[in-house]
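Record type: monomer structure entry
Structure origin: computed from sequence
Chain ID: A
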Amino acid sequence: MGKIVGAALVSHHPGLFQSDEFRIRMGNGTDSDLIAGYDRLRAKIDAVKPDTLIIFDTHWFTTGYHLIDGGRVYRGSYISDEMPWYLYGQAYNYQGNPQLAALIETVAVERGVMSKAIYDHDLPRHYATINVANKLARGERVVSVSNCQNCQPHHFIESGSVIAEAIARSVAPNSERVVLLASGALSHKFNQIDWVQKHPRIYHENNVSCPENIELDKEAIALMQAGNHASILDQWDSKFGRLPWEGFGGHYLQMIGALGARDCKAAGTALSDYENARGTGNIHMWFDV
């Protein structure tokens, strides 16, 4: 019988994939703490020994279905069409998990949830997957899950619940040990193209787009640290979802759906500072499950 052995909220922003010299210069002499945070996060992953990493990808926007990539292998070189001068040459090569993707679709059909597995190896990649896989995957299979753009919060939670049931149904010799990675930011309002930097360290929270977003991001972080996910969900429509979070918060909502939704009491451990990235609020946070 398979099980979820850990989960994390993970930043993937392109600034983290620039040269050490560039990042330190932009940090006013000190690197982003999210870089060291990847090593802290990998240590957590090493401790629970997963077979598969499921990445909830906030850049893979789909319509009509939650999609699960079911290819056996993905390899190539990634260049971002969003910022090709800045994020390019990201080589990737990792194994997928078609058996788990198929099982997720089976559970979804049984429950009447709109989730579908896609097995085409040519399925385009997005940097919310590539960046995280390149930093954190060390031989584990990697499965990406899309961010369906015509969903309400409860649809994302249902998608996560389906994934948890599929993991639980996996049996030897393919019983899965899975770490869930919610790849994306908290508040996700970009600074304008001609924005003037407020603090000389680009990563400093004062450079997040507005004080309200900083305040609400920190409120959400405190609730996560307390394992009080029910309060986040209860206030989603009135507070946190209005910011909005990256990808409508679908990465967090699917992860928490897989961990039990309002019943989830997994306390979060911050593995990095809270940092700015072009106005968005970013942090790495691990959840023991």
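Annotation 1: The longest strand covers residues 52-62.
Annotation 2: The chain has a mean pLDDT of 97.
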